[in-house]
TrEMBL record:
It holds the Pfam family EF-hand_7. Residues 41-76 form the EF-hand domain. Gene3D superfamilies: EF-hand. InterPro entries: EF-hand-dom_pair, EF_Hand_1_Ca_BS, EF_hand_dom. This is Oidioi.mRNA.OKI2018_I69.chr1.g3713.t1.cds. It comes from Oikopleura dioica (Tunicate). Keywords: Calcium. It comes from the Eukaryota. The keyword S-adenosyl-L-methionine does not apply.
Length: 116
């Protein structure tokens, strides 16, 4: 995905993120990310959320980082559950979640929620 496309997708997400209804509590990871992103401020709130997961600063998120972040924030998951979350986002199959894959997951869930 080229940088211009990423910025455009970020803009669309920010413009629509508050317009969807999410029934709580949710067990859907994408919906959980949308709820957390709503609590952030500024234009880069999706990037900030992604960087919270990227604890090693590598520019991508691995299964272990997902598990660690969720465990630390009161949403403990097993290694297998963290693996399923990661696998669902990892379109490229490289065992890493890129920012583009993270954005795509959120955008796809927003689209589904907007159609409901």
């Amino acid at each position: 995905m080229v940088e211009g496309s990423i910025l455009e997708l970020e803009k669309i997400i920010i413009e629509t993120i508050d317009d969807v209804f999410i029934d709580l509590p949710t067990r859907n990871f994408a919906e959980f990310m949308i709820i957390l992103a709503r609590r952030k401020t500024g234009e880069n709130k999706i990037r900030v959320l992604f960087e919270e997961y990227d604890s090693d600063g590598s520019g991508s998120v691995q299964k272990e980082e997902i598990k660690k972040w969720l465990d630390q924030h009161g949403k403990p998951v097993s290694k297998a559950q963290a693996g399923k979350i990661s696998d669902a986002m990892d379109v490229s199959g490289d065992d890493r979640i890129s920012y583009e894959e993270f954005l795509t997951m959120i955008a796809a869930r927003l689209l589904v929620l907007n159609l409901q």
